[in-house]
Amino acid sequence: MGIILFILMNLAVMASIYLTIFIIEAFFGVRLDQGTISGLLILSFIVGFSGALISLFLSKWMAKMHMGVQVIEHPSNATEEWLVKTVYKLADEAGIGRPEVGIFNGPPNAFATGWNRNDALVAVSTSLLELMSPEEVEGVLAHEISHIKHGDMITMTLLQGVLNTFVFFFSRLIANIIAPKDEEGNPSPMAYMAISFALEIALTIFATMLAMWFSRYREFKADEGAVRLDGPRGIYYALAKLGQIPKEQVALPSDMKAFGIVGFMDLFASHPPIEKRLAHIKEVAQEMGYHL
């Protein structure tokens, strides 16, 4: 299923790119010539934002398919009923539309996704529900609701689009400058492709580091939001408990990491180290008059 989703996503991205280029050239008379700065910039913008926007608009559907999320339409037991009521309560307190609520089989984790704050999905794993107390689960839910309230899905999409545009534009601009030229001043096609490909890899690594740094910053903000919505105890003790589990046992798939409750802890991590998050929660709690 993951391979099928990957293929469908790439087909959708390519189709959107070609359709956008066709509309620009056919209806606006603008020829997107990569040999000009303006043409390359417009093409870079189209390529950069197409994948990011499609991923955003399909995020709920992809999460349900890829993670096997079962949306709770009608609670079938006391746990599901409590989960839905708690998510709705937190959403009402946060001033956002009530999101869909789902459960999936997987490591102890949770995530939020959706293209806007009033049409989102909050999903919790069955193992997290088994591992955590109700207070701790509520803290995790408050964290995810905070992501939605702050529009983190949209912000990350816009950032990814800008970074994609940056990578595409500068890799080809620099390749066009330094690639060997023929007598007419045109760059050698093979050299141009090789240089732009190498630059794209290098710039993508740098762009990923920036995106993950911003993701870690948003995690601190979502923790703060959880404290303001639900107090510090739930999110604090939930993270402390997750911190005792080996990281590979709680990580979500790579395309879902950014809005999970925990992730890997390195330079390309979507989440900060749990120790730093716990210290930050303590600081916020003390500022608000709580004692842990």
Explained architecture:
One of its GO terms (molecular function) is metalloendopeptidase activity. It is found in: Cell membrane. InterPro entries: HtpX_protease, Pept_M48_protease_HtpX, Peptidase_M48. Keywords: Cell membrane, Hydrolase, Membrane, Metal-binding, Metalloprotease, Protease, Stress response, Transmembrane, Transmembrane helix, Zinc. Belongs to the peptidase M48B family. With about 290 residues, the chain is α+β, with helices and mostly antiparallel strands. It has one domain (about 1-290). It is built from 10 helices and 4 strands; from the N terminus they run αααβαβββαααααα. It has helices at about 1-30, 35-55, 60-65, 80-95, 125-130, 135-150, 150-180, 190-230, 230-240, 275-285, and strands at about 70, 100-105, 110-115, 120-125. A 4-stranded mixed β-sheet has the order 1-2-4-3, with helices on both faces. Strand 3 and strand 4 (about 120-125) form a beta hairpin. Helix 6 crosses helix 9. The model has no long low-confidence stretch (mean pLDDT about 85).
